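Troubleshooting: if your tokenizer reports a length mismatch, compare against these two reference records.
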Amino acid sequence: MKFFIVCPRGLEIPLAEELKTISERAEVKALGAWVIDPPPANSTGGLGVAGPMSVALAINLHSRIASRCLLQMTHVAYRKEDDIYKAVRSLSWEDWFTPEQTMRVDLTAHRSPLTSLNFVTLRIKDAVCDRLREVKGARPSIDTELPDVRVQAHLTATHATVYLDTSGQSLFKRGWRDDKGAAPLKENLAAGILALTGWKPEQPLFDPMCGSGTFLIEAAYRGLGIPSGAIRAGLMKSKEDASNPQTRTPAQEKTEPSKFTRYRPTRVDLVGADQGFGFQRLKPFNTPEFKKQWDGLCDVAKQDIEIGLANANKLKMAACDINENMITIVKSNWKRAGLPAQSGVLSNVRQIDALVAKSPFAEPGVMLFNPPYGERLEIKGGRDGSERIKGRGARDALPKNNNSPEFMEFLNQFGKHLKDNFQGWQVDVLTADMGLPGQVRMKESKRTPLFNGPLECRLFRFDMKKPGASSLASSS
């Protein structure tokens, strides 16, 4: 089978490394070998993988960077809309889902000669529905919000590729986020950035502008070896799951199997075990063979979780934010993620101005943060919010030369704070402000182009001078 693994643009290289690691896990390797495409020269937003159908099980459970795992159904040449319609209608959709289930069709294109992508989307939907009506005597309903089945298509200048989405809701929706705050960072982007920093679990990690705690929680999951899909797989109960009588555990599924269960999260971003993954609503993955494979992967993951949680006190992590409400959100999300409140990490999560924040650890480590713009750039004790940068969204790009004297002064002071108090640290900053190095008056050692949704960003790295070193940073 062929798959396309979607990821945020700019993270193709760490995704390839992660997929290789997943494919080499003993329990995954026992189900069949994978062939992973090399990372492309240009950002494509994903990678191809060839392998057994169990690829979908492993990626949905373990990939921290992937957004979706798409199973390829067909790849055909086309010249007009009818060519795509005929190719899609010829597929045996009845082998994958039933007319009683709901569906949605999404389409992307790159240099397609067709003039109306909306019309192509409609023709693909008609092709699937016409096939099921012809074979089963009924057609599925369309649900654009929370469909049981998602059909994805991509058009190039000459070819159309049609996929079934095995993930369902995007994989960045882990199931632990209770509140996003003003400027959320998607969990899989945060995980990819962590991979780019080279942070190791034994190193200190510090986020001085933590927001809702995305970097912190993603780092904890990675450091403890907890699968990113643990909550959605029903392996680790979030606080909401524990109080939700509708949540079905894996044990319940064995004794009270529910075929193609409909699902409705209480919040758009809340995805628990009852919503699971898209492949769990597809016929082939509900056979005894694949249920056994899934149970096997989950059994190993449970062991990893148990070992990881037992070692939570070994994490050297800290975070702060100037907004007191954000600290409350971080602690709530941490608990919802199933992480132990007694681990010691939460005692290092405090409401402090980044301009005076210091690491609680004796040795240097990695500082990682996503500077807030707009709403969260409020300094308590002297700044009442009236000095905000006006007319800018929480993640709108800043101009290369920002003329706000308050913001310039903030960055200048923060750069000095880093030099004085974080000697020997590696500092990584995700920002849409391309002029940030000049504003903090430091030379970056590395810059990596990334995209936070449609917003072009840079991950800047600053290697802080150690005591006695002759230069602040080396350029590469």
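Reference record two:
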Amino acid sequence: MSRSKIISTLEVKHGREIMWLASPIILTMFSSTLMWTADTILLGHYSSLALGAAGLGGLITWATYSLFNNLSRISNTFIAQAFGRNDNKAVGDYAWQVAYIAIAGGIILSLMGYFSNHVLPWTQNPPEVIDQTYLYIKWRTLSAVFTQLAFCLMGYFQGRKRTRVPMWAGIVSNSVNVLLDVWLIFGWTGFEFAGRTWLAVPEMGVTGAAIGTSVATFLNFLIMAAWAIFPAYGRKHYKIHVPRKIDFKIIKKAFVVGMPASMSGFIDMVGFAIFTILIGRAGAVALATSQIQVQILSFSFMPMWGLTIAGSVLMGNLVGKGDHDKAEMYGKQTYKMGLYYSLTLAVILVLLGGNVYKIFTPDPAILAFAATMVPLAALFQVFDGARMIGNGLLTGAGDTKPTMLIAFFVGWLVFLPLTWYLVVYHNGSVAVAWIGSVVCYAIRSALLYGRFLSGKWRHVDLWK
């Protein structure tokens, strides 16, 4: 192979355009990562029990949220394609109809969180872990409606390539969340003014962390909602300020495309929640170790999510225009950028080694696993990144059923049985469990890439 051909193969074409869309999302995700990191560090210094319970509660919460997350976010696919078709009416119509779906989903999720104390004992975790986990879930799911509406609004902005609006909303709300964490987790004696004590709160541990996240979630929704309704451009072109009547035809279409995408996310998150539950049966140390591993991986997941959304939006815009060849080209370039990022992060993690774990906890029992866990994190995030991009590109094209089937096949028919075999049957360590996860995510990313290369997504038409 000639030098010029090698350079052409390695070069990322249209990388500037992809990054123009992705960078605000990446900054938003980094702010979310820093928020989550702050939660983890603060809870880790509060107690190992609080850290493990919040990690388990967060995964269970997000697993149930994933029943509706991609359904609420499917506004992105329809709005991206409508934007590519210059169909302003459809942009506003789909934003409102998906918002109705988001509200219904959020109410269901809040009720599930409130009554989760009846099912948490099934996890067979120690009673003290279950009690703290329930407190986290109950308060965290109070904001479920606003979480789902925020996803819908993200789709409204990102589908039109307005990725900076969710960025600023995310940065502000995540910053508020960190301040609330410091205040509520450890408590504060307050300050004296005019003969009274102000802002004094008792230490609240995991409850404080969950309340802080719920308040920040509401603020995130409020900022995006105001940005959608008040500027003249959205009012003039999309009539976004005018409520629509419920249109069951549009809602049905959103369900047909969005539900497989949501089920894909649900299968993935439930699988990972059960993975965490199985690890938790080995005790609080194993659970806390796995939670730190997830936190480390968030530095790959969040920026990769930015690339995923950028690729999904570009796919949607170009498929809406009917330019499938260009859509495929942009998809391949997004894959390439994701690979470069994940390989760079893998090298950094390997060089840092076990020192990464010391950021999160001083517990020597947890640090004993660090030297083995960090290289596994480095390898896992390469395959997980490819999985996310594959899901995003196919979703942007409206080809969501294959992502669901691949998630089910690998997640529940391979990943969970393998984890049970390694951890429960063979009494394997947390490191052994994560080796199994690396294998499964490698399989899943390969299947999604194969689907993208097959070009079958070209035959999906959302506007029939």
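Descriptive notes for reference record two:
- The mean pLDDT is 86.
- The first helix runs from residue 3 to 10.
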